[in-house]
Write a structure and sequence with these properties.
alpha+beta; 5-stranded mixed beta sheet; 29% helix
């Protein structure tokens, strides 16, 4: 049997909706989050933050705060600046990675941290912040990236010696030599600018850390809400010039991340520095307002898209000029990935440019599919193009989408697509909807003054990406003396059910009960290095590591059992924790008996039999990336009196290869779809012209609830990956990638008969009113 194969007898758990191992503690109140951690002598921190988007700090007086009862320390930049050596100052040069923990001479967005107060209690620290006197010299801010990019009079980072707010990532590049000719000769070239609004990750658990520095041992221990404990350890090892072994990072239950917690933040640095200076544990927990104004923001970008189409309705070329707002201190600029612009379409030519604009707003970070704008821009532009040409958006897609018969297909950016099913998922979704019946109902409802619309979005998602840190993963699988199995993973999950899905893979591969497998993760002291959970990589890369490690342990167990049974290892099979001779199940030993021999009587084993039931591997896929795809259909009704949009139905046809756990797959789809619905219809983070945030509470920044979300219907197509173990593909971000354009296109379809040509979001009632008003004015 080839390494990595799973015997048919053992394949009992992968593909099944087994109960989640996480549910018992999470649903009964026994989850453990950062704020549940209490250490002896622990102090609490709070930040004084700037109320100005751009201002010089002329004077800071912390004397009253320091004198307050219960306050242990008050730090400003000067306190940290002189306390550490060359390694720390070298890190300060990584301005795009983590800026200084506290503002130095000026503030560059509302919420910029100025001082850090450490006290016996959180409320004491917060009260002390109010006693700090800061004299500001306000300056003109540049909060709107669309105008800031050309503004040379109000530079966001003038102290860095910059003379512009524009970072040109890539000037316009034609990836096809005949692009200009194709645009010039096309029967139709539709030119539209697609704008996507700013909205946020809003995890259930805000950011937080408990940092504890031991002066005697020169060791740092941290518990934090992160998506990557190992990368956090690596950062702080460099930050404080400590050996990696002297930094321990753990994450307990992480209440959501969505990309926001993939990075190290200024506030975490301040807590670590304070703990080192004080020699005591310091806890900082972000409140909800801080999370809204001071945790990384997302989306907020635009693209001028051109779609060239021939007389037959076949797309000949697509281009985009992209502009993104990265704020003042981006954690993840997430520029355009040109490979994704053509998406799952047979588009032969493309070109692109991308520019990032500094602005006096909170910095940009990753958000569940940080490359999703490529899908949003393309799918909204395709709907816009279809209507400009008088075509049905569904038929337009049918004519241009890739199907199984077109594969492998090389996109103009050089990406090779294979084992994807774009047209097939579209057809499945349309069948679930009953497309023809919907169009008939739509016409009937319009006669009664009800505006129904159908939005379509088809995408392809790169998973298990080839990047310097994300391309491999480690796993250790060990059989304990009891015969139970523990798998140590480099993952740091935050809602993806990793404890469940990885246990299913290990149980099937090793041939044991799912209930006998425990997954340990998010602890740098016990688990092999892993870059963390994000980028839709876990199923393929972490799953591959778990599978290969379990395979190695199985071979070791079979070798020991062969000695015990005086049989050939090639004649043995393992199932349900027992090893038997094929065809003779009465001749068997249990895995527990094998473990007992290995751990307690290893001296009785032959010299050529390894006394081990443990294996550590690092897995790297044989091909990058692994492609998933899906089609989203959204049905929206827009109230003709109030212009309030209501989502009536939502359908997803998903192809993520072989599903490890269908219940988990659908749960991930549901969560992503809800985020897309919220981002179009409800969520919109707004700054005024001076850079003041206007949506800093949940009274203003609206989140979707069960009232706004219908039951989400899911269909599955499983085109298994043949290049990666298990046939798995990633899918954690697809729900959020496809939903934004689907919802926006549904509103557009509902209002198309009124002359509305929709190209931007958000789409709340006032936005829709303005669009209809503009369409009415054009028709006068």
């Amino acid at each position: 049997m080839a390494a990595g194969d799973v015997s048919p007898v053992a394949a009992r758990f992968v593909g099944q909706s087994v109960h989640r191992k996480e549910d018992r503690r999470l649903l009964t109140g026994y989850g453990r989050y950062v704020d549940d951690v209490v250490l002896p002598g622990m102090l609490h921190g709070a930040f004084l933050r700037s109320e100005f988007a751009k201002a010089r700090i002329a004077r800071i007086d912390t004397s009253a705060a320091k004198a307050m009862s219960g306050v242990v320390a008050v730090y400003t930049w000067s306190d940290f600046d002189g306390a550490f050596g060359e390694a720390y100052h070298a890190m300060m040069g990584e301005a795009l990675v983590v800026p200084p923990p506290l503002a130095i001479t000026d503030t560059r967005h509302v919420g910029d941290p100025i001082a850090f107060v450490v006290a016996a209690y959180r409320y004491t620290a917060e009260d002390a912040c109010e006693l700090i006197e800061v004299e500001f010299e306000p300056e003109q801010a540049a909060p709107d990236y669309r105008t800031a990019v050309e503004d040379i009079s109000h530079i966001v980072h003038s102290l860095w010696g910059l003379d512009s707010n524009a970072m040109v990532a890539v000037p316009f590049t034609a990836l096809s030599p005949d692009l200009d000719d194709a645009l010039a000769s096309a029967s139709h070239v539709v030119d539209v600018t697609i704008e996507q609004n700013r909205y946020l990750c809003v995890p259930m658990e805000t950011r937080g850390i408990v940092a504890s520095f031991d002066p005697g041992r020169e060791e740092l221990s941290m518990v934090c809400s992160t998506q990557s404990v190992h990368e956090t350890r690596n950062f702080f090892s460099r930050y404080l010039n400590l050996p990696e072994a002297a930094v321990k990072v753990t994450a307990n239950d992480v209440g959501g991340g969505f990309g926001q917690k993939m990075f190290v933040f200024r506030e975490e640095c301040a807590a670590v520095l304070a703990s080192r200076l004080l020699g005591r544990p310091v806890k900082w927990i972000e409140d909800r307002r801080e999370n809204l104004i001071s945790a990384p923001h997302s989306r907020n970008e635009l693209g001028r898209v051109k779609v060239a189409v021939d007389d037959e309705g076949v797309i000949q070329a697509i281009t985009i000029d992209h502009l993104a707002d990265v704020g003042a201190y981006p954690a993840c600029p997430a520029v355009l990935d040109p490979t994704l612009l053509p998406g799952p379409y047979k588009i032969p030519r493309m070109g692109f440019s991308t520019t990032m604009a500094w602005s006096n707003t909170m910095g940009k970070g990753a958000y569940r599919g940080p490359w999703m704008f490529e899908t949003t821009a393309r799918e909204m532009a395709i709907d816009y193009t279809a209507r400009e040409l008088g075509l049905d958006p569904v038929e337009f897609r049918r004519k241009n989408l890739l199907s199984a018969g077109d594969l492998p297909f090389t996109s103009p950016s050089g990406q090779v697509f294979q084992e994807i099913t774009p047209l097939e998922t579209l057809e499945q979704a349309l069948e679930m909807l009953d497309y023809e019946a919907f169009r008939s109902e739509q016409q009937e409802q319009r006669r009664h003054g009800k505006y129904l619309g159908l939005g379509v979005s088809v995408y392809v998602e790169p998973t298990s990406m080839k990047t310097p840190t994300l391309a491999s993963e480690g796993a250790t699988v060990r059989v304990e003396a009891s015969g139970r199995v523990v798998a140590y993973m480099g993952t740091t999950s935050h809602g993806q059910s990793v404890e469940t899905t990885m246990a299913q893979i290990v149980a099937d591969t090793l041939g044991v009960s799912y209930d006998d497998v425990t997954i340990v993760q998010a602890d740098t002291q016990s688990t092999p290095y892993g870059p963390g959970t994000g980028g839709s990589r876990t199923a393929v890369i972490a799953g591959g590591a778990a599978r290969e490690a379990a395979t190695a342990v199985r071979e070791k167990a079979l070798s020991v059992a062969a000695h015990m049974m005086e049989a050939s290892a090639d004649d043995l099979e393992m199932s349900n924790g027992a090893i038997a001779v094929r065809g003779t199940p009465t001749r068997s030993v249990t895995l527990r008996e094998v473990a007992t021999l290995v751990y307690r009587s290893a001296d009785t084993l032959p010299p050529d039999t390894e006394p081990s039931l443990e294996a550590t591997v690092r897995f790297r896929p044989s091909q990058f990336p692994t492609w998933s795809n899906a089609t989203h259909l959204c049905v929206v009704e827009v109230d003709a009196d109030t212009w309030v949009p209501h989502v009536q139905r939502y359908i997803v046809s998903e192809d993520c290869g072989r599903m490890i756990n269908p219940m988990v797959v659908e749960g991930q789809i549901f969560g992503g779809v809800v985020q897309g619905i919220g981002g179009v219809l409800l969520e919109n983070f707004v700054y005024d012209s001076d850079g003041n945030p206007l949506t800093s509470t949940f009274m203003d920044y609206l989140l979707p609830t069960t009232t706004e979300v219908p039951d989400i219907e899911v269909g599955h197509i499983e085109s298994e990956s043949t290049t990666n173990a298990g046939g798995f593909k990633g899918m954690g971000e697809g729900g959020a990638i496809g939903s934004h354009a689907a919802v926006a296109n549904a509103v557009s379809d509902a209002l198309a008969h009124l002359g509305v040509r929709l190209s931007r979001t958000p789409l709340g009632p006032s936005d829709i009113f303005d669009l209809v008003d503009q369409a009415t004015a054009r028709q006068r």
